[in-house]
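We store chain and fold; thus.
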Amino acid sequence: MGVEAWPYPAPPDDGGAAHIVAGNTLPDIELPTTVGDRLSLARISGLSIVFIYPWTGRPGVANPPGWDGYSGAHGSTPEAQGFETHLHSFRARGIQILGLSTQSREWQREFASRMGLTYPLLSDASFEVADALQLPRFQAGGVAYLKRLTLMCRDGRIVRSFYPVHPPDRHAADLLAML
């Protein structure tokens, strides 16, 4: 039996992350994390991968209105699970994994606990990092969400960005293969 293809279409490369290039510095803004501390991406030593995702659902909670109308909206849970599955391989290469969305720390803590995630998720609920980096967004139900992208960083600088990310369920494995 073969691997099923991701059931949602790939988002177009709309150029929304063209300005996020190697050498850009990360903003020194401390964000709350799911592990109880605050963390600034600018102060992380060594190599890190920050996957940025729009929203994680919860059992019994409907997706935002219009969610299905944006290609690229679906996939945050399988993307996060993929990074957890491959976490040992990233750490063996000295790479720290972090997730970032604009959801609240409390929402992310519930998600991390339910999914068994052992790496930190950062809450940019005030869009401070999103605004500083001019991260691409989309609207669903009149609310702004970050588009899915990934930053490879070293010592407070962007090494490489990946945008658009597709398919999200294989993104962690694809990054490992690239490394």
